[in-house]
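Key result, reporting period 2: structure in, sequence out.
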């Protein structure tokens, strides 16, 4: 089944859409796609009956294929729709028992519905970009059908999917660092669609990260092979990459570069994997696997290695200032303040004014202690405002013009930020927020993880009260998430510093994170709150749960906040 890159311009006519319900195993749906759907629709496309077509796998409203075609008279659309339904009814495959997954009103097997085509116009860049996206849908469907036909086993299918993901990233002209960032953000984006995934971050990431430790060199070798073979065009992955480049050129000629269209390509790649039969949790796992491999191309390092070649020793030497090197280490001028705009999930939220903190510094220092065990409510928006804005809020001082913070920052860049998980704070909707200390607003970013999922982010967390055990004192020290009103994540927006300070940026960022964390701890002590200081966490899981990429947005601390029990 030869595949050629589709022209990236609109065909004639509008799309007609059919939902064809198939209560078969994935293997038999694959057979239907490769043996019935694709030959039928490709035959119509080649003889000019239709201009183009594509399909998507869906489970909402019952398991079905959504098949869309355009460019023919109404009677021609009815004919192919009737042929598909007749073929589904004639196939002698055993039907699945959908059991508890089924819902009242779901259509039965081999039933079909003609549904108006409602394009996701904004998701794919707006009205002008939609024809380009739809041309890619067509090529994606043909590519997927060819791959499915050639890869009957799940292992073979995942290898092909890996090649197609890498080919997409290379066609977008991303280097390995940018590709890892893109993959992490795409994997994290699933947290906005919890209904589509079933596995926790830890369950998804565990096998993926374990595989990356042994297969990183193979992934990097594959990256270079795909880069070198792009001009050949004979392989499926190369033909897909050619379509990505063609569509990308047209999109970027209208507005913006690759960053402008990053979300569009994330959606296109997701749709390609959907057509291959890759489930969302498998997609998440694949992205985490590839990101981990690209970020550590030589594989894992001995965690306790101590010599001149150990990464920490080499970093300290490489980031050291020295008189003989200062001319090329001198900070560069950079106007960068934040690394791009991130997705927001609602309007900004203002908190009440911060109440004055009257406790003496000495008393706060004496009272300060890392909160452990149970930290609970009550906690309200006023308590939160006093904690956040006293410790981190910007202010305009008469003796020093411009907005200042109550802690030091290299070059006054203020690259350290706070992510808030408001779990049970009166007056603050349960949500995840980025804390904007300059405007003193909370910026909604996404949903709050469940207790069970958040407990997987750190060895110092537990999802409920500890069992009373005299021989397990460590369990009593772990933070009980079931009662916790709020959790803060202190993270470094590294590019803000790196553009100016190069390798020294990470040092400066971690210093600033420590300054801010200590401010929060002292303010909490002065206002009767308990605040834990947790530096032991599973980085990639914590980054995903806090909607951070772990590449440019690097978590330094998790700070549970509440009132000490008793």
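The corresponding designed sequence is given below.
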């Amino acid at each position: 089944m030869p595949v050629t890159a589709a022209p990236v311009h609109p065909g004639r006519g509008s799309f007609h859409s059919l939902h064809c319900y198939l209560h078969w195993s994935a293997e038999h749906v694959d057979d239907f796609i490769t043996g019935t759907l694709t030959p039928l629709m490709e035959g119509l496309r080649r003889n000019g009956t239709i201009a183009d077509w594509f399909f998507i796998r869906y489970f909402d409203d019952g398991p079905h294929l959504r098949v869309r075609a355009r460019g023919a008279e109404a009677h021609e659309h009815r004919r192919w729709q009737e042929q598909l339904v007749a073929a589904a009814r004639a196939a002698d495959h055993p039907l699945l028992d959908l059991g508890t997954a089924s819902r009242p009103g779901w259509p039965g097997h081999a039933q079909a519905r003609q549904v108006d085509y409602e394009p996701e116009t904004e998701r794919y860049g707006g009205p002008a970009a939609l024809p380009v996206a739809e041309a890619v849908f067509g090529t994606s469907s043909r590519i997927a059908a060819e791959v499915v036909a050639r890869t009957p086993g799940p292992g073979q299918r995942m290898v092909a999917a890996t090649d197609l993901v890498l080919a997409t990233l290379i066609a977008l002209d991303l280097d390995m660092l940018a590709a890892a960032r893109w993959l992490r953000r795409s994997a994290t984006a699933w947290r906005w669609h919890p209904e589509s995934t079933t596995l926790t971050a830890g369950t998804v990431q565990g096998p993926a990260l374990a595989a990356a430790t042994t297969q990183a060199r193979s992934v990097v070798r594959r990256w270079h092979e795909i880069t070198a073979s792009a001009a050949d065009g004979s392989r499926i992955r190369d033909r897909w990459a050619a379509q990505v480049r063609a569509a990308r050129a047209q999109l970027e000629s209208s507005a913006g570069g690759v960053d402008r269209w990053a979300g569009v390509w994330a959606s296109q790649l997701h749709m390609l994997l959907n057509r291959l039969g890759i489930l969302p949790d498998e997609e998440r796992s694949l992205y985490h696997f590839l990101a981990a491999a690209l970020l550590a191309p030589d594989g894992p390092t001995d965690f306790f290695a101590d010599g001149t070649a150990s990464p920490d020793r080499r970093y300290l030497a490489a980031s050291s200032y020295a008189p003989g090197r200062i001319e090329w280490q001198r900070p560069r001028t950079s106007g960068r303040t934040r690394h791009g705009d991130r997705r927001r999930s609602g309007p900004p939220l203002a908190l009440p004014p911060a109440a004055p903190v009257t406790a003496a510094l000495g008393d706060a220092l004496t009272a300060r202690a890392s909160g452990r065990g149970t930290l609970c409510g009550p906690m309200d928006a006023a308590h939160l405002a006093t904690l956040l804005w006293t410790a981190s809020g910007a202010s305009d001082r008469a003796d020093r013009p411009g907005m200042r913070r109550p802690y030091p920052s290299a070059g006054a860049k203020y690259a350290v930020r706070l992510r808030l998980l408001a779990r049970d704070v009166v007056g603050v909707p349960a949500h995840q927020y980025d804390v904007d200390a300059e405007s003193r607003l909370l910026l909604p970013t996404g949903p709050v993880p469940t207790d069970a999922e958040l407990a997987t982010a750190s060895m110092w967390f537990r999802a409920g009260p500890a069992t009373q055990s005299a021989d397990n004192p460590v369990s009593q020290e772990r933070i009980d998430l079931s009662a916790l009103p709020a959790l803060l994540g202190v993270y470094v927006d590294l590019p803000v510093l790196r553009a100016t300070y190069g390798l020294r940026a990470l040092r400066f960022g971690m210093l600033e994170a420590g300054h801010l964390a200590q401010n929060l701890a002292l303010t909490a002590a002065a206002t009767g709150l308990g605040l834990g200081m947790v530096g032991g966490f599973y980085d990639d899981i914590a980054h995903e749960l806090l909607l951070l990429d772990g590449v440019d947005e690097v978590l330094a601390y998790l700070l549970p906040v509440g009132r000490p029990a008793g």
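The radius of gyration is 27 Å. Residues 96 and 109 are 9 Å apart (CA to CA). This case is discussed further under Risks and Mitigation.
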